[in-house]
Every structure is written in structure tokens, then in C-alpha cells.
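Project outcomes to date are best conveyed with an example. Our students and postdoctoral researchers have been running inverse folding experiments weekly, and each run begins with a structure described purely in C-alpha cells. The record below, which covers 201 residues, was selected by the lab manager from last quarter's runs and is presented without edits.
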């Protein structure tokens, strides 16, 4: 997961989904520099070469895109992000038939409940599952400052989308690696991962 030091995410597309809005501006300090948390959120994973191909498009069919023609998060990509966010959010998604927290399967994508957010512990777990280590406190403080959060400082789904809008605009391959870490293939299909298999045992 990485973020550029000199740009901000553009407005996200409108949707009837309760987790998105037409415009998601970043909060910035008056007169301060643009978002600059990239240096603290670099993934320790090595980059993968992209010879003779556009970054982030290798092994992906032409119709599978993370950003649409207007540069906004595509509907299919947003559905993947909802699933990832739902694995770590509070409150947990409920299994409507059982009234208990839902566990994901390769055939079922999770949906975060309305008003869901990532607590400090959820943020740490997501960062660890994505990059192998939790974020430093300074990085968390900047996420709270620049991204959409609850009054208590929990990262909202809007803020989660802001993170991935910004990252994907500047390093799409890093986003593909994040998706792979959470069990998605280059067709944005959820497939079984070793981590999920171990958690079910």
C-alpha cells in the first residue's frame, strides 16, 4: 500500500450504494502541503516488472479495470473493496439468516453494514494482512487527518475508497498486489487464499 506525496484523489463516482457519495474531498490543513503519507505507507513487498504493458494491466482482460474511463473506482473494484473493508470493520457484517457475524467464502463477498468503520485494531489487522505489518502511529494520525473518518477517528468506507483512489491513480500495480493479498485474482474474482483457509481450521 503506497500513497503519492503530491496528489489527492479525485472525486469518486456517484452511486446508489449507501457507502459512496458523489464527491469525497480530502481534508487538508489550510495552507498546508498536499497529502504526504506515501513515505510512511510503502509496502515492503518487492515490485513486479511490467515489461511491454501498461502498469497494473498484466494478465488482466481488457474489460477488467480498477479505474473507469473517467478515472474513478470501477463498480467491480468497489465491490472488492467493500469485501475487504467488511472483513475488518465495526460493526461486523451479519449473516442475515443466522443473525451472527458472517465469514467470507470464495463464493460470497461481504458487505459492510451502513455506518461501518475501521477501529484502530481493525486498521492494524488490515494493514498487517495487506502489507505484513501494522502502520506506525504517525501514519495512523495522518490517515485520521486527511481521510474521511468518524468523529471518534475510525476510518469510514469513504475514507477507505479515498485511500485506494489515490493509490490506484499513482501505482496501480501496488493495488493489484493488495487485492491479491486479500484473495482476488486479476479478474477481480475472489479465490481461496492460504490465510483464509488457515483461519477456517
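After processing, the design step wrote out the following sequence:
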Amino acid at each position: 500500500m503506497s500513497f503519492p506525496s503530491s496528489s489527492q484523489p479525485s472525486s469518486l463516482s456517484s452511486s446508489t450504494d449507501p457507502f459512496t457519495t458523489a464527491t469525497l474531498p480530502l481534508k487538508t490543513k489550510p495552507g498546508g502541503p498536499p497529502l504526504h503519507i506515501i513515505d510512511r505507507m510503502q509496502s515492503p513487498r518487492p515490485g513486479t516488472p511490467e515489461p511491454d504493458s501498461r502498469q497494473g494491466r498484466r494478465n488482466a482482460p481488457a474489460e477488467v479495470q480498477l479505474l473507469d474511463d473517467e478515472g474513478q473506482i470501477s463498480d467491480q473494484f468497489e465491490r472488492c473493496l467493500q469485501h475487504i473493508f467488511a472483513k475488518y470493520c465495526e460493526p461486523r457484517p451479519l449473516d442475515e439468516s443466522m443473525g451472527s457475524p458472517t465469514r467470507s467464502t470464495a463464493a460470497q463477498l461481504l458487505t459492510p453494514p451502513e455506518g461501518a468503520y475501521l477501529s484502530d485494531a481493525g486498521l492494524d489487522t488490515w494493514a498487517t494482512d495487506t502489507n505484513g505489518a501494522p502502520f506506525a502511529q504517525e501514519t495512523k494520525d495522518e490517515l485520521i487527518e486527511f481521510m474521511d473518518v468518524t468523529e471518534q477517528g475510525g476510518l469510514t468506507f469513504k475514507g477507505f475508497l479515498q485511500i485506494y483512489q489515490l493509490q490506484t491513480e499513482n501505482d496501480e500495480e501496488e493495488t493489484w498486489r493488495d487485492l491479491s493479498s486479500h484473495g482476488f485474482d486479476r479478474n477481480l474474482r475472489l479465490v481461496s487464499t492460504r490465510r483464509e483457509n488457515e483461519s477456517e481450521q
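The chain has six helices and four strands. The first strand starts at residue 94 and ends at 95. The training component of this project remains on track.
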